[in-house]
Design goal:
- The complex is a heterodimer of chains A (379) and B (361).
- With 379 residues, chain A is of the alpha+beta class.
- Chain A has two domains: 105 residues, Phosphorylase Kinase, domain 1, CATH 3.30.200.20; 215 residues, Transferase(Phosphotransferase) domain 1 (Transferase(Phosphotransferase), domain 1, Orthogonal Bundle), CATH 1.10.510.10.
- Chain A contains eleven helices and ten strands.
- Chain A has a five-stranded antiparallel β-sheet, covered by helices on one side. Chain A has a three-stranded antiparallel β-sheet with strand order 6-8-9.
- In chain A, α4 runs antiparallel to α6 and α6 runs antiparallel to α10.
- Chain B folds into two domains: 108 residues, Cyclin-like (Cyclin A, domain 1, Orthogonal Bundle), CATH 1.10.472; 199 residues, no CATH class.
- Chain B is mainly α.
- In chain B, α2 packs antiparallel against α3, α3 packs parallel to α9 and α8 crosses α10.
- Chain B has 14 helices and no strands.
- The radius of gyration of chain B is 20 Å and the shape is globular.
- The chains are: A alpha+beta (379), B mainly alpha (361).
- Chains A and B meet through α2 and β10 of A and α1, α4, α5, α7 and α8 of B.
- Chain A: It catalyses: L-threonyl-[protein] + ATP = O-phospho-L-threonyl-[protein] + ADP + H(+); L-seryl-[protein] + ATP = O-phospho-L-seryl-[protein] + ADP + H(+).
- Chain A: Keywords: ATP-binding, Kinase, Nucleotide-binding, Serine/threonine-protein kinase, Transferase.
- Chain A: One of its GO terms (cellular component) is cytosol.
Chain lengths: 379, 361
């Protein structure tokens, strides 16, 4: 989900302290946690403020009266004739089975005849907001730990036959510690081994891979990997990798301008895809990524190499999430990071912490040390 | 690239383990040894009939086999969790299928609840379905993703293809296996260069067999993983003298207990054979056959265990969508000789509920 501008303004006043569950106030003094309250009932949660509005839900910040934890309340619009939207059923039943440090946690479901609310752990911001707050590209170390967590989450869901199918910065939640969590599984689907045809209207255009843009409906985990690659570039560069403005064809042109127009030699079968146009001959030579995205030229080659492996035109050539985690790009992270249990955050590994971003639109003159943020580990 | 190697096999084993965990977490014997569904007044044969009916509905709505299987799992789990009355059975079953479809099918395939009800020829109101939906979600704690017998068929098939491709040449590579890793053999989205390999013939047949078995109440005592492995082993036995080592490998990976497995295999064999030789008068067949020509996804009765491997090998269907063609391909040679199937050709446009509808009302 995305958050509104209003939220960002609030952040101006409160800075990062809004990661403090009680917003700095001693809420507890005049509020007694109710012990008789139960999960699954609406009055167990207090609505605090609206965070944003999505396609099928409105998200509020809330607080649990059961344990005082901050929560995100995703209020799902119910259609009277259709019952629970399929997006909600997929999201909830998928998340029920997913327990991972890089997947958003679903705490509770409140389901009545008229309404449906999912109670999620509260996570302070998302990658889109984070990049807005820190324009011009993120700290290269932070890019690495975000990317690692993104791939770690993907590797986990892909290993369970689940595709996210809607990766974009807005759907990657970022906690004040720098923990990245995949969210918004409304379009995700568990996928059996023999693939059914997927509807091609799934991924936001900017993060959509060329095979899907070309009309292939036969896609797979490589779909999410392309999205991850786009996000990788965007974090480094501070601007979307392929910001097409109009339609599928413009989006494809953006991609071809970097990767070159695919041919039968480079991508057997490409010309048979529905949206393929034989008249694509314009600047068709593949460009070096570092000449297109200048930030790559300033970083060791392995950064560019990983970007290239995720942004291969032919889906089959794209690296898997699992292999990507083994890429030399991540060699500089402390080795124990590779051996964590699913539910353990990478920030449990000594030495892993979010670096201060060079640019911060909210405090241009002052650097904030994330390590000074009060500890509130409970979420 | 063609040889997926150890990584692929590890990945598949991981997939299997995950499915087994999900199954272990959620699976319950849907019936007691006495034969009756827990505490309810629903008899096994009524339960069985409603599953068969669900199969028809699933085909009528063009749902994939996974959806049917998931719908049955939801139904069975609910029946083992609550005391359900017979009069609600059909509504529970129908809603289970709708829930499975909401999870599994693309939204353009699902259609509106209202349309589905109309198509089904039943007289549920939308409100009833929605109320039931809420009850099911609540009773099952929204935890609907389970590993179905059909899932296990696919996973075992993938393991066979990746681990023992030489055994069953007609499975071939590219039968929709390595969907996940970029290097997987069958993972070739939009890559028609590879599309002329034969698709997974066996897997389609096994899928239909397992769907049959899901409707057989004597087989409900077995988990989906056991059932799937039994079906595949019966096939392997017939196809290759080398089957035993392959089978023990799968058995170990699937963590299936061997006495239970043997018991299951015998029963499956008996059941599938009985289907093979049963007369058209057999209710199972009639209900089944009524729609079979109408729907591309229809299952045909499990039959001719020993010949299957050689049939349809030459078909060069499209990749995954080849599934649909496959069913058609198979149907034609069988239709003539097979009990009941051909006879129902004329019923192509009959009402969704066949005349010999199970007595569940």
């Amino acid at each position: 989900w995305f958050h509104t501008l209003q939220v960002r303004r609030l952040r101006v006043q409160r800075g990062r302290s809004n990661s403090d569950p009680l917003g700095g106030n001693s809420f507890e003094q005049d509020f007694q946690w109710k012990t008789g309250l139960q999960f699954g009932t609406a009055n167990s949660y207090l609505n605090l403020e609206k965070l944003g509005e999505g396609a099928y839900a409105t998200v509020y910040k809330g607080i649990s009266r059961i344990n005082g934890h901050l929560v995100a309340l995703k209020v799902i619009r119910m259609k009277t004739e259709e019952g629970v939207p399929f997006t909600a059923i997929r999201e909830a039943s998928l998340l029920k089975g997913l327990k991972h440090a890089n997947i958003v946690l679903l705490h509770d479901i409140i389901h009545t005849r008229e309404s449906l609310t999912f109670v999620f752990e509260y996570v302070q911001t998302d990658l889109a907001q984070y990049m807005t707050q820190h324009p011009g590209g993120l700290h290269s170390y932070n890019v690495r730990i975000f990317m690692f967590q993104l791939l770690r989450g993907l590797s986990y869901i892909h290993g369970r036959r689940i595709l996210h199918r809607d990766l974009k910065p807005q759907n990657l939640l970022i906690s004040y510690l720098g923990e990245l969590k995949l969210a918004d599984f409304g379009l995700a689907r568990s996928k059996s081994i023999p693939s059914q045809t997927y509807s091609s209207e799934v991924v936001t255009l900017w993060y959509r891979p060329p095979d899907v843009l070309l009309g292939s409906t036969d896609y797979s985990t490589a779909l999410d990997i392309w999205g991850a690659g786009c996000i990788f570039i965007e974090m480094l560069q501070g601007a979307p990798a392929f910001p097409g403005e109009a339609d599928v064809f413009e989006q494809l042109q953006k991609i071809w301008a970097v990767l070159g127009v695919p041919t039968e030699e480079s991508w057997p079968g490409v010309s048979e895809l529905p949206n393929y146009k034989p008249e694509w001959f314009l600047p068709s030579e593949p460009q070096q990524f570092r000449t297109v995205w200048k930030r790559l030229a300033q970083l060791p080659y392995k950064t560019e190499d990983l970007a290239q492996r995720t942004l291969m035109a032919m889906p089959r050539d794209r690296i898997s999430a699992q292999d990507a985690l083994q890429h030399p790009y991540f060699n500089t992270l402390p080795p124990p990071i590779m051996q964590l249990r699913d539910t353990v955050s990478i920030f449990k590994v000594p030495g892993v912490r979010l670096e201060t971003e060079v640019r911060d639109i909210f405090s241009p003159s002052r650097r904030i040390k994330p390590s000074l943020v009060p500890l509130a580990k409970c979420w | 690239m063609k040889n997926p190697g150890a990584a692929e096999s590890r990945r598949l084993v991981g997939l299997l383990e995950d499915a087994l965990v999900r199954e272990a977490r959620l699976w319950k014997v849907p019936v007691f040894k006495t034969g009756c569904t827990q505490g309810a007044d629903i008899s096994p044969s009524q339960h069985q009939d409603v599953i068969l009916w669900l199969g028809e509905m699933s085909r009528l709505f063009h749902f994939c086999p996974e959806t049917f299987a998931l719908g049955v799992c939801i139904l069975n789990r609910l029946l083992s969790a609550v005391k359900a009355q017979l009069k609600y059975l059909k509504c529970i079953a129908f809603t289970s299928l709708i829930l499975a479809a909401k999870i599994n099918e693309e939204d353009e395939v699902i259609g509106s609840v209202k349309d589905l009800v109309v198509q089904s020829g039943c007289n549920f109101s939308t409100a009833e379905i929605l109320r039931m939906e809420r009850i099911i979600l609540d009773k099952l704690h929204w935890d609907l993703y389970t590993a179905t017998p059909v899932d296990f068929i696919h996973i075992f098939h993938a393991l066979l293809v990746s681990g023992h491709p030489h055994l069953i040449p007609s499975i071939g590579l590219g039968s929709g296996v390595g969907w996940g890793s970029a290097a997987g053999p069958g993972f070739l989205p939009g890559c028609p260069g590879h599309q002329n390999r034969p698709p997974g013939l066996q897997v389609a047949l096994w899928t239909r067999q397992v769907q049959h078995c899901m409707a057989c109440h004597q087989l409900w005592q077995f988990k989906g993983s056991t059932l799937a492995l039994a079906i595949i082993t019966l096939e392997l036995e017939a196809l290759t003298p080398d089957w035993f080592s392959v089978f023990t490998d799968l058995l170990k990976k699937a963590q299936v207990e061997s006495t239970e497995f043997i018991h299951c295999k015998e029963m499956v064999d008996k059941y599938l054979t009985s289907l093979e030789f049963s007369l058209p008068a057999n209710a199972v067949y009639i209900v089944d056959g009524a729609q079979i020509q109408e729907e591309e996804r229809a299952w045909s009765p499990a039959r001719r265990l020993r010949q299957r491997g050689r049939e349809g090998e030459g078909d060069s269907d499209e990749y995954y969508d080849g599934f649909r063609c496959l069913y058609k391909e198979e149907m034609s040679p069988e239709a003539g000789e097979c009990d009941g199937e051909g006879a129902f050709d004329a019923q192509k446009d009959v009402s969704p509920c066949p005349p010999l509808h199970p007595a569940v009302n």
